[in-house]
Amino acid sequence: MSEAEVYEKVVGVITPFAKNADALAAISRDTNILDDLEVNSARLVDIMLEFEDAFDIEVEDEAADNIATVGDAVQLIVQKTS
Amino acid sequence: MWDKAALETQRIVSYFLLIVFAPVIYALFYWRYQFSAHELSEVRRRYREIRQQHPGAMLLCTNHLTLIDSIVQGAILNSMGGYLMHVSALPWNLPEFKNFNHSFIWRLTCYLGRCIPVTRGASREESQRAQDKMRYVLERGDIISIFPEGKRSRSGRVDDNDYSYASGALLRMVPDATVLCVYLRGMKFGGFADWPNRSERFFVDLEVIKPKSALKGLRETRDLATQIVSQLKTMEDRFFASPLAAR
User: Fold this and answer.
1) Do A48 and B165 touch (CB under 8 A)?
2) Which residue of B has its CA nearest to A32?
3) Closest Cα to residue B178, out of B59, B34, B20?
């Protein structure tokens, strides 16, 4: 899967959890999932678990802690699927 | 190391100053606000019994409706003497840093009330540091009071749809900790409010559970938190099915 495809899929996973519609409309790799999209920490865990299912990967606690932006998530998933 | 020394200092200072502040809190609770509790002596007897049966690390997991639930819970579960007899009896609390950092009085109150501040969306280092403090106090046999829903329930009922997973994360850190679910609700007015109404009478139900999960990692965290919140929901359902709710 290309990085662009991963990005699209990541945005698709995050979208239902985002509470800030304006930030979601302007989403980019630099968008902070907690601060910009106003996703709370429990829903961030849900997002990580959805990543696990969607990409057939395992996201360890430490790796999850390091994900702040959409780009961080894409980078982690690309690493794990390549 | 410095954090541990600071926690030990806070633990001792809060204990000794309890001698000064506990009478004030109990006086406000019973006389100024005329709060009371349903079957108070029975609740305290059960709590004492649970602590004797489950000494050591404990998570007090309580539903969350008002800004002073921690204080109300504390004044009901134990007598002033009970707190003064055991230095570990006063639970640690986990307030959001920004909720009390704005004033010196609140910072002092939180220090004396054994609070470990947490910050939503904190950096990994900050978050790890707070978790290390929680692990330390639990492993030394203290109690942490946590609201598993993560916020006050606006609906006035336990929110089992949108809740925090922090209780599950804590339990994964110290798996042997006893989980004591506490259902707390005003019987006269109840529901979501900043402050309970004057002369409120509180209902308290206690239940020890042993959440277990065959899952791993973040799924285990979510599963454990879900079991705790589900238990609180069950206790709430039990309350509303009882004649007490109709009073």
Assistant:
1) no
2) B121
3) B59
Test B218 with A59 for CB contact under 8 angstroms: yes
Q: Are A45 and B218 within 8 A, CB to CB?
A: yes
- CA–CA distance, B204 with B38 (Å, rounded to integer): 7
Residue of chain B whose Cα is closest to the Cα of A64: B218
Q: Is B119 helix (H, G, I), strand (E, B) or coil?
A: coil
* pLDDT tens-digit map of B187-231: 988 889 999 999 999 999 999 999 999 999 999 999 999 999 999
The per-residue DSSP string of A28-44 comes to: -TT-BTTTTS---HHHH
**What are the sequence ranges of the domains in chain A?**
3-81
The three-state secondary structure class of B2 is: helix
Q: Which residues of A touch B135 (CB under 8 A)?
A: none
User: pLDDT tens across B116-139, in order?
Assistant: 999 877 777 888 899 999 999 999
- The residues, ordered by sequence, that sit 6+ positions from B226 with a Cβ below 8 Å of its Cβ are B168
Alpha-carbon gap, residue A64 to B214, rounded angstroms: 20
Burial B127-158 (b: 16+ CB within 10 A, else e): beebbebbebbbeeebbbbbbbbbebbeeebb
Q: Across the interface, which of A34, A46, A49 has its CB nearest the CB of B121? A: A34
Give the pLDDT confidence score for residue B100 in this predicted structure.
79
CATH T-level topology, domain A3-81: 1.10.1200
Domains identified in chain B, total number = 1
Nearby residues of B19 by Cβ (< 8 Å), 6 or more positions away: B84
**Domain limits at B130?**
2-246
Cβ proximity of B139 and B92 under 8 Å: no
